[in-house]
Amino acid sequence: xxxxxxxxxxxxxxxAIVDLFGKVRDEWMDxxxxxxxxxxxxxxxxxxxxxxxxxxxxxxTTKQSRFADALLQELAGVSIPPERIxxxxxxxxxxxxxxxxxxxxxxxTMTDFFYLLTDPRxxx
Length: 124
Description:
By secondary structure, the chain is mainly alpha-helical.
């Protein structure tokens, strides 16, 4: 995440930057999905854990949901229903970047999660 101080200094808007990154990813995926997929990876063992999980899986990620869905399908070989993928823009990710997750009403709580993978940048 770009620091708010830098964003303010540069006169940039966080939402505009997020939209731009999304647009660039969409264009790359449309032009050459194989190289976009090849530029990403999961931590070792994650695809297997997702494939063989016996509990309902929720994905919480700092990526936009459509990109997480593509990676899950292409790299991990799993399909997670879109209502169980909480990505950038769902209202959760901003709080994740601040070091905490706050779930709105109707969203599962952490007690509903079987396994939580964290980004190494988070101080969990």
